Amino acid sequence: MLVLNNIEVVYQGVILVLRGVSLIAKEGSITTLLGANGAGKTTTLKAISGLLRAERGEVTKGSIELDGKRLDRLPAHDMVKRGVTQVFEGRRVFENLTIEENLIAGGHVQHDLTRVRAGIERVFEMFPPLRERRRHQSGYLSGGEQQMLVIGRALMSDPKVILLDEPSLGLAPRFVEDIFRVIRRLKEEGGLTVLLVEQNAALALEVADHGYVMENGRIVLDGPADALKQNSDVKEFYLGLNELGTRRSYRDVKRYRRRKRWLS
Prior knowledge:
The protein is an alpha/beta fold. The chain contains eleven helices and ten strands.
Protein backbone atom coordinates (compact mmCIF):
# COMPACT_ATOMS: atom_id res chain seq x y z
CA MET A 1 0.00 0.00 0.00
CA LEU A 2 1.25 3.46 -0.97
CA VAL A 3 0.21 6.19 1.48
CA LEU A 4 0.69 9.97 1.34
CA ASN A 5 0.13 11.58 4.74
CA ASN A 6 -0.67 15.31 4.58
CA ILE A 7 2.36 16.21 2.45
CA GLU A 8 3.42 19.71 1.53
CA VAL A 9 5.83 20.41 -1.32
CA VAL A 10 7.84 23.61 -1.70
CA TYR A 11 9.91 24.59 -4.75
CA GLN A 12 13.05 26.72 -4.43
CA GLY A 13 12.35 27.24 -0.75
CA VAL A 14 9.44 29.63 -1.30
CA ILE A 15 6.80 28.29 -3.74
CA LEU A 16 4.18 26.17 -1.97
CA VAL A 17 2.70 23.75 -4.54
CA LEU A 18 1.12 20.90 -2.55
CA ARG A 19 -0.91 21.92 0.48
CA GLY A 20 -1.52 18.90 2.68
CA VAL A 21 -2.14 16.12 0.15
CA SER A 22 -3.24 12.75 1.53
CA LEU A 23 -4.11 9.71 -0.55
CA ILE A 24 -3.96 5.93 -0.50
CA ALA A 25 -3.19 3.63 -3.44
CA LYS A 26 -4.09 0.13 -2.34
CA GLU A 27 -1.96 -2.82 -3.38
CA GLY A 28 -2.99 -4.28 -6.73
CA SER A 29 -5.39 -1.43 -7.52
CA ILE A 30 -5.58 1.42 -10.02
CA THR A 31 -5.93 4.84 -8.41
CA THR A 32 -6.45 7.89 -10.58
CA LEU A 33 -5.64 11.51 -9.80
CA LEU A 34 -7.79 14.04 -11.69
CA GLY A 35 -7.44 17.81 -11.91
CA ALA A 36 -6.90 20.74 -14.21
CA ASN A 37 -3.47 21.76 -15.50
CA GLY A 38 -1.43 23.19 -12.65
CA ALA A 39 -3.44 21.46 -9.91
CA GLY A 40 -0.34 19.63 -8.63
CA LYS A 41 -0.82 16.15 -10.10
CA THR A 42 2.65 15.77 -11.65
CA THR A 43 4.27 17.28 -8.57
CA THR A 44 2.53 14.61 -6.50
CA LEU A 45 4.04 11.88 -8.68
CA LYS A 46 7.50 13.44 -8.46
CA ALA A 47 7.20 13.68 -4.70
CA ILE A 48 6.56 9.93 -4.61
CA SER A 49 9.32 8.98 -7.07
CA GLY A 50 11.95 11.19 -5.43
CA LEU A 51 12.48 13.42 -8.46
CA LEU A 52 11.63 16.73 -6.79
CA ARG A 53 15.26 17.34 -5.87
CA ALA A 54 16.20 17.62 -9.53
CA GLU A 55 13.88 20.64 -9.75
CA ARG A 56 14.84 22.18 -6.38
CA GLY A 57 11.68 20.92 -4.75
CA GLU A 58 11.23 19.04 -1.48
CA VAL A 59 8.61 17.51 0.76
CA THR A 60 8.60 19.89 3.73
CA LYS A 61 5.78 18.36 5.77
CA GLY A 62 4.04 15.01 6.01
CA SER A 63 5.33 11.63 4.87
CA ILE A 64 5.18 9.12 2.00
CA GLU A 65 5.15 5.43 2.86
CA LEU A 66 5.18 2.15 0.97
CA ASP A 67 4.26 -0.96 2.95
CA GLY A 68 4.77 1.02 6.15
CA LYS A 69 8.30 2.19 5.28
CA ARG A 70 9.01 5.88 4.75
CA LEU A 71 10.15 6.89 1.27
CA ASP A 72 10.17 10.69 1.08
CA ARG A 73 13.73 10.99 2.38
CA LEU A 74 15.21 8.65 -0.23
CA PRO A 75 16.93 9.68 -3.51
CA ALA A 76 15.26 8.72 -6.78
CA HIS A 77 17.56 5.79 -7.59
CA ASP A 78 16.77 4.19 -4.25
CA MET A 79 13.07 4.59 -4.96
CA VAL A 80 13.46 2.41 -8.05
CA LYS A 81 15.21 -0.22 -5.96
CA ARG A 82 12.32 -0.11 -3.48
CA GLY A 83 9.89 -0.82 -6.32
CA VAL A 84 8.55 2.61 -7.39
CA THR A 85 8.96 3.74 -10.99
CA GLN A 86 7.54 6.70 -12.91
CA VAL A 87 6.54 7.01 -16.57
CA PHE A 88 6.79 10.66 -17.56
CA GLU A 89 4.45 12.72 -19.65
CA GLY A 90 5.89 13.25 -23.12
CA ARG A 91 7.33 9.79 -23.96
CA ARG A 92 10.98 10.35 -23.04
CA VAL A 93 12.72 7.53 -24.87
CA PHE A 94 16.47 7.28 -25.41
CA GLU A 95 16.16 8.25 -29.06
CA ASN A 96 19.56 6.99 -30.24
CA LEU A 97 19.12 3.57 -28.64
CA THR A 98 17.14 0.72 -30.11
CA ILE A 99 13.93 -0.55 -28.54
CA GLU A 100 15.81 -3.48 -27.04
CA GLU A 101 18.57 -1.24 -25.66
CA ASN A 102 15.95 1.03 -24.04
CA LEU A 103 14.44 -1.99 -22.32
CA ILE A 104 17.84 -3.21 -21.12
CA ALA A 105 18.44 0.27 -19.64
CA GLY A 106 15.14 -0.01 -17.78
CA GLY A 107 16.30 -3.27 -16.23
CA HIS A 108 19.54 -1.84 -14.83
CA VAL A 109 18.54 -2.72 -11.25
CA GLN A 110 18.21 -6.39 -12.19
CA HIS A 111 21.37 -8.38 -11.51
CA ASP A 112 20.16 -11.60 -13.11
CA LEU A 113 20.48 -11.65 -16.91
CA THR A 114 17.80 -14.34 -17.10
CA ARG A 115 15.31 -11.98 -15.45
CA VAL A 116 16.26 -9.20 -17.86
CA ARG A 117 15.61 -11.45 -20.84
CA ALA A 118 12.32 -12.60 -19.32
CA GLY A 119 11.34 -8.98 -18.77
CA ILE A 120 12.03 -8.12 -22.41
CA GLU A 121 9.90 -11.04 -23.56
CA ARG A 122 7.09 -9.95 -21.25
CA VAL A 123 7.15 -6.43 -22.74
CA PHE A 124 7.14 -7.80 -26.29
CA GLU A 125 4.23 -10.06 -25.43
CA MET A 126 2.28 -7.07 -24.10
CA PHE A 127 3.24 -4.80 -27.01
CA PRO A 128 3.69 -6.92 -30.18
CA PRO A 129 4.60 -3.91 -32.39
CA LEU A 130 7.77 -3.46 -30.33
CA ARG A 131 8.96 -7.00 -31.04
CA GLU A 132 8.71 -6.39 -34.77
CA ARG A 133 10.95 -3.31 -34.48
CA ARG A 134 13.18 -4.36 -31.60
CA ARG A 135 16.39 -3.28 -33.35
CA HIS A 136 15.03 0.04 -34.66
CA GLN A 137 16.19 3.31 -33.16
CA SER A 138 13.55 4.58 -30.77
CA GLY A 139 13.58 8.10 -32.14
CA TYR A 140 11.93 6.85 -35.33
CA LEU A 141 8.95 5.23 -33.60
CA SER A 142 5.45 6.69 -33.71
CA GLY A 143 4.10 8.43 -30.64
CA GLY A 144 2.01 5.40 -29.73
CA GLU A 145 4.97 3.03 -30.08
CA GLN A 146 7.12 5.32 -27.95
CA GLN A 147 4.47 5.31 -25.23
CA MET A 148 4.42 1.52 -25.33
CA LEU A 149 8.19 1.56 -25.00
CA VAL A 150 8.39 3.86 -21.98
CA ILE A 151 5.76 1.81 -20.13
CA GLY A 152 7.64 -1.36 -21.06
CA ARG A 153 10.91 0.17 -19.94
CA ALA A 154 9.39 1.02 -16.56
CA LEU A 155 8.19 -2.56 -16.16
CA MET A 156 11.73 -3.87 -16.66
CA SER A 157 12.61 -2.97 -13.06
CA ASP A 158 9.79 -5.27 -11.86
CA PRO A 159 8.14 -2.51 -9.79
CA LYS A 160 5.55 -2.76 -7.03
CA VAL A 161 4.13 0.66 -7.93
CA ILE A 162 4.05 2.36 -11.32
CA LEU A 163 3.27 6.07 -11.66
CA LEU A 164 1.76 6.96 -15.04
CA ASP A 165 1.66 10.62 -16.07
CA GLU A 166 -0.75 11.37 -18.95
CA PRO A 167 -0.21 8.12 -20.91
CA SER A 168 -2.83 9.03 -23.53
CA LEU A 169 -1.52 12.52 -24.27
CA GLY A 170 -1.24 13.19 -28.00
CA LEU A 171 -1.94 9.60 -29.07
CA ALA A 172 -4.21 8.34 -31.85
CA PRO A 173 -7.37 6.62 -30.52
CA ARG A 174 -6.20 3.11 -31.46
CA PHE A 175 -3.01 3.55 -29.44
CA VAL A 176 -4.98 4.95 -26.49
CA GLU A 177 -7.09 1.78 -26.49
CA ASP A 178 -3.94 -0.37 -26.55
CA ILE A 179 -2.33 1.55 -23.68
CA PHE A 180 -5.38 1.37 -21.44
CA ARG A 181 -5.88 -2.30 -22.21
CA VAL A 182 -2.36 -2.91 -20.88
CA ILE A 183 -3.03 -0.75 -17.80
CA ARG A 184 -6.01 -2.97 -16.96
CA ARG A 185 -3.92 -6.05 -17.56
CA LEU A 186 -1.16 -4.86 -15.22
CA LYS A 187 -3.64 -4.89 -12.37
CA GLU A 188 -5.52 -8.04 -13.33
CA GLU A 189 -2.54 -10.27 -14.07
CA GLY A 190 0.42 -8.82 -12.24
CA GLY A 191 -1.17 -7.35 -9.13
CA LEU A 192 0.72 -4.12 -9.82
CA THR A 193 -0.30 -0.95 -7.98
CA VAL A 194 -0.95 1.86 -10.46
CA LEU A 195 -1.27 5.58 -9.72
CA LEU A 196 -2.60 7.21 -12.87
CA VAL A 197 -2.65 10.90 -13.80
CA GLU A 198 -4.82 11.36 -16.86
CA GLN A 199 -6.59 14.33 -18.49
CA ASN A 200 -9.11 12.01 -20.11
CA ALA A 201 -11.26 11.63 -17.01
CA ALA A 202 -13.74 9.28 -18.67
CA LEU A 203 -11.00 6.79 -19.55
CA ALA A 204 -9.28 7.15 -16.18
CA LEU A 205 -12.46 6.48 -14.21
CA GLU A 206 -13.30 3.56 -16.48
CA VAL A 207 -10.14 1.65 -15.52
CA ALA A 208 -9.65 2.94 -11.96
CA ASP A 209 -10.83 1.46 -8.68
CA HIS A 210 -10.61 4.73 -6.77
CA GLY A 211 -10.16 8.36 -7.70
CA TYR A 212 -9.03 11.68 -6.22
CA VAL A 213 -9.72 15.19 -7.52
CA MET A 214 -7.08 17.90 -7.01
CA GLU A 215 -7.56 21.67 -6.97
CA ASN A 216 -4.76 24.15 -6.31
CA GLY A 217 -2.51 21.64 -4.58
CA ARG A 218 -5.24 20.08 -2.43
CA ILE A 219 -7.40 16.98 -2.59
CA VAL A 220 -10.99 18.25 -2.73
CA LEU A 221 -12.91 15.06 -3.50
CA ASP A 222 -12.31 11.32 -3.53
CA GLY A 223 -14.25 8.08 -3.73
CA PRO A 224 -14.72 4.85 -5.67
CA ALA A 225 -14.40 5.43 -9.41
CA ASP A 226 -17.98 4.32 -10.07
CA ALA A 227 -19.27 6.85 -7.55
CA LEU A 228 -17.17 9.67 -9.01
CA LYS A 229 -18.58 8.94 -12.46
CA GLN A 230 -22.03 9.66 -11.03
CA ASN A 231 -20.98 12.77 -9.11
CA SER A 232 -22.64 15.85 -10.60
CA ASP A 233 -19.54 18.04 -10.23
CA VAL A 234 -17.25 15.46 -11.83
CA LYS A 235 -19.77 14.99 -14.65
CA GLU A 236 -19.91 18.70 -15.31
CA PHE A 237 -16.31 19.74 -14.82
CA TYR A 238 -14.43 16.66 -16.05
CA LEU A 239 -16.78 14.65 -18.24
CA GLY A 240 -18.48 17.65 -19.84
CA LEU A 241 -22.00 16.42 -19.03
CA ASN A 242 -24.93 18.26 -17.53
CA GLU A 243 -27.44 16.79 -15.09
CA LEU A 244 -29.34 15.20 -17.97
CA GLY A 245 -26.21 13.39 -19.16
CA THR A 246 -25.85 15.43 -22.36
CA ARG A 247 -22.75 17.29 -23.45
CA ARG A 248 -22.37 20.87 -22.30
CA SER A 249 -20.98 23.73 -24.33
CA TYR A 250 -17.61 25.24 -23.49
CA ARG A 251 -19.41 28.39 -22.36
CA ASP A 252 -21.33 26.38 -19.76
CA VAL A 253 -18.34 24.35 -18.59
CA LYS A 254 -16.06 27.35 -18.03
CA ARG A 255 -18.27 28.41 -15.12
CA TYR A 256 -16.16 25.82 -13.28
CA ARG A 257 -13.72 28.51 -12.15
CA ARG A 258 -16.51 30.58 -10.64
CA ARG A 259 -18.56 27.86 -8.96
CA LYS A 260 -16.94 24.94 -7.12
CA ARG A 261 -19.63 23.32 -5.09
CA TRP A 262 -17.29 20.76 -3.52
CA LEU A 263 -15.18 23.56 -1.93
CA SER A 264 -18.13 25.23 -0.20
